[in-house]
Design a protein that fits this description.
- The complex is a heterodimer of chains A (344) and B (194).
- Chain A is an alpha+beta fold and 344 residues long.
- Chain A is built from twelve helices and five strands.
- A five-stranded mixed beta sheet of chain A has the order 2-3-5-1-4.
- The longest helix of chain A is centred in the C-terminal third of the chain and has 55 residues.
- Chain B has 194 residues and is mainly α.
- Chain B contains seven helices and no strands.
- Chain B is globular and about 45 Å long.
- In chain B, 37% of the residues are buried.
- The chains are: A alpha+beta (344), B mainly alpha (194).
- At the A-B interface, helix 1, helix 2 and helix 12 of A face helix 1, helix 2, helix 3, helix 5 and helix 7 of B.
């Protein structure tokens, strides 16, 4: 490429004529037209944040509205089934302290809920009060003057499988010491750190209080239940029937057998002891209104995002086609322009 | 070449008094107006020369130059100095105007040919300022070849800017320029020697 040619091209190219200068100067002197207020780019710049803001506002509004409806009340826990989180760090003696009135109030509904046999006619109030005052640690105590069937159950938390083994053995020793006997035991440690033992023992009714107090020292009390069924009325009735059946040997024999069985039931109390290393689940605290609002708003936002993603997924093939068509048309236009200039 | 354009005059400083703000707004508006006027003054020759090369017709080049500046005036608020100089932007507008002109001309020619039979294409009428040798040589080039010479040689745009105006890659721009100059030199050299 010769420098002379370059110089000639630059030097010989004419400048704009004067009349063109005047025309352009006239254009420049014209009052400026109002600039376009709406452009695609500007609209896009506004549309994206406006859509995001709208979605957020909708989520907040829905969250606030739905949070005003209170959630269903959580199931009340028994009074003496304290959550592990609350019990943690307290001295064992304090944890084992059972509130007698709460335990007493719980006895009947729990029995009814479990489908167990309903209590016979309730004891007079003064007798219950006497039982409660007599048993500050071991739950309601049986009456010494009446024949009663006593059933107690204890759920205890122990630290580890070693502790579980020691507690089980101690429970058996205590049972024997109190003159009772073992009915069944189910001991297992399926994992190295977890295990449980279910022990059913029978102890004399007169010592059931002591048994419960001893057992409650084996671990942290998770739950305790004592059920006392009065048998005295039935015994009295049998006694009356026996008096009336004097001379009828067969009927007398049947009634005596039944009375003996009732006396046996009244002589020994059944204690179910459940020992476990598994921490009970913490009580579910109902979320506050703010938390519910945030949860609901987050849910709405998630749903909106899911819808947006769904639309994007469904529309993406069409968008790709559209983009390809746009790119193709641009390329074709460029090619056509080039052809046009080459022919000129 | 490039201009540092003032911010949008409608964005007023509300902390100032209304009269001061109004005066400043008017002043800013005048600055924007003046900046277009100065850009037009600075680059009028560039646009005209570019269009003269592309169209090879002084009359059409004048019309298209005028049209280009009309378009530029209307779209001046869309001009962004960060995306390129005013010269590049004006050349892009000029190219669009020229292509629109060529398309319209082709449609018109086709219509006329359908009605009145084939007619010869528009004559290349380069102005007298070109020497006879160069004018004759430029006549043999296509519009695309003259265009790249105008941008790279006459207006002295760098490869990147010229490629942007042409809508092609810088490599393609360089190739096209080399071919055009080679062709032009082949036409010019024998005549100069003679």
């Amino acid at each position: 490429m010769s420098p002379e040619l370059i110089a000639a091209l630059r030097d010989e190219t004419p400048s704009a004529p004067e009349n063109l200068r005047d025309r352009v100067a006239l254009i420049a002197a014209t009052p400026a037209a109002p600039s376009r207020t709406f452009t695609f780019r500007r609209a896009l710049l506004w549309a994206v944040p406006a859509t995001a803001l709208g979605a957020l506002t909708l989520a907040v509004v829905v969250g606030v509205i739905t949070s005003s409806t209170p959630p269903s009340a959580p199931t009340a826990q028994p009074a003496n089934e304290q959550p592990a989180a609350q019990n943690r760090g307290r001295p064992r003696a304090a944890l084992n302290r059972v509130r007698p009135r709460a335990a007493l109030n719980r006895v009947r509904p729990r029995a009814a809920q479990n489908g167990l046999r309903q209590f016979p006619p309730p004891l007079p109030a003064q007798e219950y009060r006497a039982i409660i005052t007599a048993a500050p640690n071991g739950g309601p105590a049986p009456s010494r003057r009446r024949a009663q069937q006593v059933q107690a159950s204890l759920r205890l938390l122990v630290d580890d499988p070693d502790d579980l083994s020691a507690a089980t053995q101690r429970a058996l020793r205590t049972t024997r010491r109190l003159g009772g006997y073992l009915v069944a035991v189910d001991y297992g440690t399926p994992e190295a750190t977890e295990g449980s033992a279910n022990v059913r023992v029978r102890v004399p009714v007169s010592r059931v209080q002591a048994a419960i107090v001893d057992f409650s020292n084996l671990g942290r009390i998770l739950g305790q239940q004592t059920r006392i069924t009065d048998l005295q009325q039935r015994l009295d009735a049998l006694t009356r029937q026996l008096r009336r059946a004097k001379g009828d040997k067969v009927r007398t024999a049947i009634l005596r057998r039944e009375r003996i069985a009732l006396n046996r039931r009244a002589a020994y109390a059944t204690v179910d002891l459940a020992l476990t290393t598994h921490e009970p689940e913490q009580k579910v605290v109902p979320p506050s209104r703010l938390e519910r609002a945030v949860d609901d708003a987050t849910g709405v936002l998630t749903a909106e995002l899911a819808i947006a993603a769904y639309i994007l997924i469904v529309a993406s093939p069409f968008l790709v086609l559209l983009a390809a068509a746009f790119a193709g048309s641009r390329a074709y236009r460029r090619y056509a322009d080039q052809r046009l200039l080459e022919r000129t | 070449m490039g201009h540092a354009f003032a911010p949008n005059p409608c964005q007023l400083d509300v902390t100032r008094s209304p009269s001061v703000a109004y005066t400043e707004c008017v002043s800013e508006l005048a600055n924007v107006h003046r900046s277009f006027a100065s850009a037009a003054e600075d680059h009028l020759d560039d646009v005209y020369r570019y269009l003269l090369y592309v169209t090879a017709n002084p009359a059409i080049a004048e019309d298209l130059t005028s049209e280009t500046f009309e378009r530029a005036f209307k779209r001046w608020d869309r001009f962004d100095v960060k995306r390129g100089s005013a010269q590049t932007w004006l050349c892009q507008l000029a190219r669009g105007a020229a292509l629109d002109h060529f398309r319209a001309e082709r449609r018109r020619t086709r219509r006329e040919q359908r009605v009145a039979g084939p007619d010869r294409a528009a004559e290349v009428e380069l102005p007298e300022e070109y020497g006879p040798v160069l004018r004759q040589a430029l006549r043999t080039l296509t519009g695309a070849e003259r265009e790249v010479i105008a941008l790279r040689v006459v207006l002295e745009l760098d490869t990147k800017m010229a490629a942007r105006v042409l809508g092609i890659s810088p490599t393609a721009c360089t190739t096209r320029l080399n071919r055009a100059l080679e062709k032009l030199e082949q036409k010019v050299r024998p005549r100069l020697v003679a």
